[in-house]
Amino acid sequence: MLYAEDEPDDLFFMRYVWELAGIANPLVEFQDSREAMDYLAGKGEFADRKKHPLPCLLLLDLNLPGKSGFDLLRWIRNQPGLVSLPVIVVSGSNQESDVEKAQALGIADYIIKPSSVVHLEKIVREKLERWLPTDER
Question: What is the pTM of this model?
Answer without folding.
Answer: 0.91
